[in-house]
Amino acid sequence: MKGQRIGYIRVSSADQNTDRQLDGIELDRVFTDKTSGKTMDRAALTELLRYAREGDTVLVHSIDRLARNLDDLRHLVNDLTSRGVRIQFVKENLTFSGDDSPMSRLLLSMMGAFAEFERAIIRERQREGIEKAKKKGKYKGRKRVLTPLQAQELRSLAVPGCNKSALAKRFGISRESVYRYLAI
User: Fold this and answer.
1) Which band of pLDDT confidence, cut at 50, 70 and 90, is reported for residue 14?
2) Engineering a disulfide at 56: which of 3, 40, 104, 139 sits with its beta carbon 3.0 to 4.6 angstroms away?
3) Is 12 annotated as catalytic?
């Protein structure tokens, strides 16, 4: 039995476009996350891991779309391939199936290390840029999304046990922003 071709797409923020990642590739099902790759706690990724079955092939645009650090990358690839699921990275033209050669495993480790290194460089540049802007008095952080009145309303609605996702939807902000407003 031939398995399904499953796509996994990840962009770092909701306003980024997902169209280019697996454009022109025929897929049976696509899972899309619009969140940072620094964490494994991603809804669509979790759903994909539950959904994928033996014989399926998971297609990902590039290694850094699946994981931003080597440990997570190895864990995900090993988890999928140990269940008989192939994983294909389109940009790198690499496919892993569980019976991979030592050279394939080395390539995975090297490419994963490059993705991790790239993330570290981006963070370092960002920190340097913020520090420089602060010294010039030009960095004020991100502009608040909610007015003070809306923030007060959000806090009054956020009773223990309330659904933070529902609050986020109601105010048109992310769940992370809800937690930030509650911490102020």
Assistant:
1) low
2) 3
3) yes
Q: Which of 12, 36, 62, 97 is catalytic?
A: 12
Contact 178, 164 (CB under 8 A): yes
Q: Which residues pair with 53 in a beta bridge?
A: none
CA 148, CA 106: separation in Å to the nearest integer? 53
Which residues in 111-120 are b (16+ Cβ under 10 Å) and which e? bbeebbeebe
73 close to 115: Cβ distance less than 8 angstroms: yes
SS3 89: strand
pLDDT digits (tens, 9 = 90+) for 127-180: 999 899 888 888 877 766 788 899 899 999 988 888 888 988 888 888 888 888
Q: Confirm if 68 and 33 have CB atoms less than 8 A apart.
A: no
Residues present in the chain in total: 184
* pLDDT band of 22, cuts 50, 70, 90: confident
Q: What's the rounded Cα separation, in Å, for the pair 181 and 177?
A: 6
Angle between helices 164-171 and 175-183 (to 10 degrees): 100
Cα dihedral: 62, 67, 68, 70 (round 10): -110
In three-state secondary structure terms, 172 is coil
